[in-house]
Amino acid sequence: MSSGLPYLKSLRKPDLTEFAERTDLQEYEDYNKNDLAIALDKHLSENRTIFGTDTKLSKFYERLGSSATPAKTPSKRKSEAKVEISPVKKTPGRKPKAKVDETSSDDNAKPAKVTRTPSSLARSARTTFEMPASPAVVAASIDRQTAKVREGLENAWDDSGLLEHSYYMRSALSSLKAVETILILLEGGSLLKSLFPLRHMATSPAVDALNLPEVAIKVPDMFVLITGEFWAPFVLWSLTSVLLPLIAAWFINLSWNAATGGQTVRRGRSAATRASFDPLTFNIAKALLVYKVFVEHFNYFDLFSNYTIVKVNSVVPGRWKGMLTGTAIGVIGTLYEAILRRS
Fold first, then answer.
1. In CA terms, which of 12, 155, 252, 308 is 20 to 30 Å from 191?
2. How far apart are CA 277 and CA 181, in angstroms?
């Protein structure tokens, strides 16, 4: 492994593929990123004379050349000679006299030489030859660590599955049915929230240590389901925004007529030729019903009171203007989808 391998591993696989194509690397299509980097490192190192002038590969050969330059070794220091002191013969009854150099003087005295053992000389030599790492080695080490961190992050991202889930969600939401469903759930959710009053059930005690006050616990009152105050607004909204527009979209189905040529649907046919709901007719019928009921206060042959109409109109986001805006979005989406199918 050369010092240029960390640089290759830090690149993306499309860049490595480009290097393989430029240098005529054989059978590289089945390699993964790591194997492709190793194969390229060997191939480029062996053919340095051929591809050394390529500007795309200059960074690789710079790292390869920096590691090939031998580091200068410091010259060995001359080891000091070991001084041997001859033993002084002891005379009985007398202390041994130290040998005094007659040429030495008190004013210019020379220091005594220190005796060095082989172990101390080895330690001194190791200390002398321990030099700091070269910049090329440090850069190669940083490149290897960076490549490992990047590879770990890529593997963690792939294993999490977030990318696949995001693609699935985008595919599910990229349809006109999804848009219509979101608009209906927004209207129905706002209506149900107002029709279910909250009833106080209990109160959580305060926690002085955490400075938490008392919190009232409330739950929806389900007994409202047996009263007309719930069913009258809910049925009015269901008829105006869902049921009657769906019936109109099933019978007045222009998209089904264009797909089947007006032929009668028979049993046993494939699902592609079965009748479905026309989104354009659905939104147009809903817009007419919303305007007739909530603007002109048409009450379905006196089935609903004026209070019920006002109640539904007041809780839906944007009131009748918000519902008409939702139908306009549906019409535009239907036309845009039809244009995309024709193109």
1. 252
2. 13
